[in-house]
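Aim 2 progress update. The chain analyzed this quarter is reproduced below.
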Amino acid sequence: MAILSRSDVEHVAHLARLGLTAAELDRLEGQLNHILDQYAILARLDTEHIPPTAQTIELESILRDDVVIPSLPVEAVLLNAPAHEGGFIVVPPVLGGE
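Predicted structure tokens:
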């Protein structure tokens, strides 16, 4: 597996417009090389019989089932409206006009 040199890390930091100090570059070089070492270990694993997946853990819906239930009768809703007419709530106009 290829090893990232200090100049590789400086180049990537420059492309990403990161102003890193010498100490940060040293630390990042070590961390990135450690990640590449770990990837090399994983790349040696036999995954021939493992089906491809986009999710590593089972997903479960946390939402409740959408169940139809009776709602309030129109009369009860209109009792809460400041103004109503013909079974509808009356509101001030929003777009122009009076």
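The first strand starts at residue 84 and ends at 85. Residues 6-43 form a domain with the Histone, subunit A fold (CATH 1.10.20). These observations will guide the mutagenesis experiments scheduled for the next reporting period.
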